[in-house]
Design brief:
The protein is 4% helix and 63% strand. The protein has 899 residues and is mainly beta. The longest helix is centred in the N-terminal third of the chain and has 17 residues. The radius of gyration is 30 Å and the shape is globular. The N terminus is likely disordered.
């Protein structure tokens, strides 16, 4: 790999040396330098775009051209006339200043029929997709990775200039709103015409300029003309061989777009490890619902009472069988009314095998464990949206999102400390989220916004553990029968939540550069929590543990009424938005036959400041002081199983914690040389935090919730930075790092019931380096290297991960792609270490203008059997190192037909 890197650096240097530089300044007729003017050079012989540039804040452009060639160079700027000039290069650099004018006599007589690869119009960056393709791309993700300033992370999420893209649209219509992964993995690359990056995005035009939208980014895909008003897409079917059983994949993708309506249908059936939607994707799928109370000063989040069913790591497991189907639509009954929505169904059956060792247990014990799990998960998401915008003054919309799932997991655990254990988990959670928004602009000085959101959530986790040994906490469960060959214990839970958020905002424009925002809001939540524990005896009879501390019957209400005031003003290059909110909180929990009520008031300030150093260079500061409240899960005092070796009881007398957050973000995007820099640092301090009071006995623990003294505040300091640059059209490089330091406090309980504060610190570091090429008629390489250090101050874990990716389009019909990644996991003392690697390869054949494509693909060609992971438990001070079995090598032959 070192030799390859040196070779690429040599090629880059050689390319620079062979080019002729053409630079200068672009001005208007008054002599003012024009920033963001587009400059493009078309080779008159090949008719290809050999170079392009966008002027910087001083109007400077810079092109690298072939020597001894003739070019037509086009200069364009929004609002001024396009100018074309012809130049002939020799071997010397050329310097020439250009003046653009609104006078028609300045127009050049030669028309250049080419499109600028990258252009800028206001807050929108427009990429011409074909300019960045090399012939190996098959989906949107493949093209996005080649664009300057754009990245696609391993989860399929799009990041632009360090900001996560919140919405993907196609022809202005939402594409599975609330998730970008379905778009990146399924929209075909050959359908792309333009990719528009919409910065400072706000879909409600009434609030444009009134809110702080600098972090909001959306992407809109413009389709090629042949893809409009026609069905397009493809259908793939493949079969192959693998370990013990045959492999298959069926993957249809159909799309239809016209100005009135659109339909998208995606399907996937396979047993080769392709996961269009993982459990993690399901839980974070927002459906486009926003955090409407983000400026309210209160954090009241409804926790998920799920059973912690295992998620797949890197979409890999011992066996995975997937069935997936999704449909998205948009319909315009009129020019002012839009209906849209989607339905998604996913069914995954997985086998998971994990071998792990845990050190740092009390009495210097260590646990060696083998877990064998079988999972069946059925997930469903359904959304319906209506948006009515009859004029620029009025905006009305309604959204409803339904999430359903049916999850089962059976696990066999073999432990050197606890012998053999068998567990079953079942749950069918449901959530229904809906919002209603109304925005009205009375006149240029007065804007009103009404937003309300309702959440209904029902969860019914069922947990059963069958143990060889009497559980360590059996003495706490009054009525438990310890005289059994097997200890078979079960818990039923049911949690129901109704939560309503509502607020009214009034904006008054004091001046064209300042406004006053008054907010009246309310958050109300009502929850029910029921649970019961019973034991299955050896004779199969049921022993109900009816004591009050073994059961829960709790009702909990939370109410926050607040008034907020914010003042936003612009002065020079600065934007300031200070404010505060005044809250009245009321809580009441009913359990154990009496109520516990609480009421208090609090003032919470916040502050926002933006320094616009240049058009695409900003420094942003945010400060907030917030009250953090727990939901019913930590207030219920009856015992709850967290796991077969973990018992938890809540505390109804918990108080809220107070957190202060400071964040500083720097961003710079230079279109002149396609350089992007972003960095941020965040400090959080939380006092009176809700913590677990834990008694640890070997691998077992009994814990309860408590407020920890404010003298022992939790603190985190995190930062990240990234530098990226594209140059000479063919090269893209980046370097990034992330650092996270944390200090947490918990209460450890000794077996004599004495308490001590357990402070745990950790410092995690991650560094990554990436370099890629994008030639049209030569092989392309992407070299990457990441290095991470996780120091928990009792042990240190290291991971080295170099990777290389090869792409090559040749003979006008063949595409070859291959990716190799290597991982070296180890701890400081080398007592836990492992190396593993993965190699995939694909060769595709498709004649020009043919609708058929053959593909031969191999996954895990080196037949790696497992991957590794390390973790640290900050409560118990325990380190774990695990090996996770993955699917073996398999070869697939598939055929794709494009519509």
């Amino acid at each position: 790999m070192k030799n390859i890197t040196l070779l690429l650096l040599f090629v880059t240097t050689f390319s620079f040396a062979q080019n002729v530089k053409f630079d200068g300044i672009v001005k208007d007729t008054t002599g003012i330098a024009l920033e963001m003017a587009n400059v493009m050079a078309v080779n008159q012989q090949t008719k290809a775009v050999d170079s392009y540039s966008i002027t910087n804040d001083k109007g400077k452009f810079q092109l690298f051209l072939n020597p001894n060639s003739t070019y037509n160079v086009r200069f364009t700027f929004l609002g001024l006339k396009t100018k074309n000039i012809t130049i002939t290069t020799g071997t010397e650099n050329i310097n020439k200043n250009i003046t653009l004018t609104s006078d028609a006599t300045e127009l050049a007589t030669v028309e250049v029929v080419r499109e600028m690869p990258v252009s800028v119009k206001g807050d929108t960056i427009i990429y011409n997709a074909d300019s960045f393709k090399n012939g190996t791309e098959r989906k949107l993700e493949d093209v996005l990775k080649k664009l300057p300033g754009v990245e696609v992370n391993k989860d399929g999420e799009i990041e632009v200039e360090g900001k996560k893209v919140q919405k993907v649209m196609v022809e202005g219509k939402d594409f599975f709103d609330g998730d970008t992964k379905i778009a990146t993995k399924n929209i075909p690359a050959d359908a792309l015409d333009k990719i528009q990056v919409l910065r400072n995005y706000n879909e409600v035009t009434n609030l444009k300029g009134l809110e702080n939208n600098e972090e909001n980014v959306a992407i809109n895909i413009k389709l090629k003309e042949g893809k409009k008003n026609f069905w397009f897409g493809d259908v793939t079917a493949g079969i192959g061989v693998g370990h013990k059983e045959d492999r298959y994949i069926i993957n249809p993708k159909l799309f239809y777009y016209n100005p009135k309506y659109s339909i998208n249908v995606v399907g996937n059936l396979n047993n080769i490890g392709e996961l269009p939607l993982t459990m993690q994707d399901y839980f974070k799928f927002t459906g486009g619902f926003k955090n409407m109370m983000r400026k309210g000063g209160t954090n009241f989040n409804v926790s998920s009472n799920d059973l912690g069913i295992l998620g797949l790591r890197n979409n890999k497991a011992k066996e995975i069988d997937t069935k997936f189907g999704a449909a998205n639509f948009s319909y315009n009954p009129s020019k002012t009314w839009t209906l849209s929505g989607f339905g998604i169904f996913s069914s995954n059956k997985s086998q998971i095998e994990t071998n792990s060792i845990t050190t740092g247990l009390p009495n210097n014990l260590s646990e060696t464990r083998k877990d064998l799990a079988t999972q069946q998960t059925n997930l469903g998401l359904f959304k319906l949206s209506s948006s009515y915008v009859p004029s620029t003054k009025l905006h009305f919309d309604y959204d409803a999102l339904l999430k359903l799932s049916d999850q089962k997991e059976s696990t066999s655990v073999f432990s050197n400390l606890l012998n053999d254990i068998y567990t079953d988990k079942k749950q069918q959670p449901l959530s229904f989220n809906q919002n209603l928004n109304y925005y009205y602009t009375l006149n240029e000085k007065n804007v009103f916004a009404f937003e309300t959101q309702h959440l209904y959530q029902a969860e019914d986790p069922f947990y059963n553990a069958n143990l060889d040994q009497v559980p360590i906490f059996a003495n706490l469960l009054t009525g438990y029968n310890i005289f059994q060959d097997r200890n078979n214990i079960t818990q039923n839970r049911f949690v129901k939540t109704n939560k309503l958020d509502a607020k009214v905002d009034y904006y008054y424009m004091l001046t064209p550069k300042s406004n006053l925002n008054v907010t009246i809001g309310n958050t109300y939540s009502y929850q029910n929590f029921d649970s019961s524990i019973f034991q299955i005896l050896d004779n199969q009879s049921q022993n109900n543990l009816t004591d009050a501390k073994n059961n829960n019957d709790v009702n909990y209400s939370f109410n926050d009424v607040f008034l907020g005031l914010h003042y936003k003003f612009l002065t020079g290059k600065f934007t300031f938005n200070p404010g505060f909110s005044v809250h009245n909180y009321q809580t009441n929990d009913e359990q154990l036959n009496f109520s516990n009520k609480n009421s208090f008031n609090r003032i919470l300030p916040d502050f926002y400041a933006l320094w616009q150093l240049k058009k695409s260079e900003t420094l942003t500061y945010n400060f907030s002081l917030a009250n953090n409240f727990t939901d019913i899960s930590k207030l219920a005092q009856g015992y709850v199983f967290s796991n077969y070796n973990s018992l938890f009881s809540g505390n109804r007398y918990l108080e809220n914690s107070l957190s202060q957050v400071h964040s500083l973000r720097y961003f710079k995007y230079n279109m002149f040389n396609f350089e992007n820099i972003f960095a941020n640092i965040t400090y959080t301090k939380q006092v009176e935090a809700i913590k677990n009071r834990a008694l640890l006995i070997g691998p077992n623990r009994v814990s309860s919730a408590v407020n920890i003294n404010s003298n022992f505040a939790d603190q985190t300091l995190s930062g990240m930075a990234n530098y990226g640059r594209s140059f000479l059209r063919y090269y893209k490089a980046s370097f990034g790092l992330s650092l996270n330091w944390s200090e947490f406090n918990n209460i450890r309980v000794a077996q004599d019931d004495s308490e001590s504060i357990q402070m745990t610190k950790s410092f995690a570091q991650n560094y990554n380096l990436r370099f890629s090429t994008n030639f049209k008629e030569a092989p392309n390489l992407e070299l990457a290297y990441s290095y991470s250090i996780n120091d928990n101050f009792s042990d240190v874990f290291y991971i080295d991960s170099p990777s290389v990716k090869l792409e090559y389009f040749f003979w006008d019909a063949f595409s070859f792609t291959s990716e190799y990644s290597y991982f070296n996991n180890r701890n400081k003392s080398n007592t836990s270490k492992n190396q593993y690697d993965f190699l995939t390869a694909n060769i595709m054949y498709q004649k020009k203008d043919s609708k058929w494509e053959w593909k031969l693909s191999g996954t895990n060609l080196l037949n790696t059997t497992s991957l590794n992971d390390s973790s640290f438990d900050q409560l118990g001070g325990q380190s774990s190192f695990s090996a996770y079995s993955v699917q073996p090598r398999y070869i697939i032959l598939s055929l794709k037909y494009a519509l």
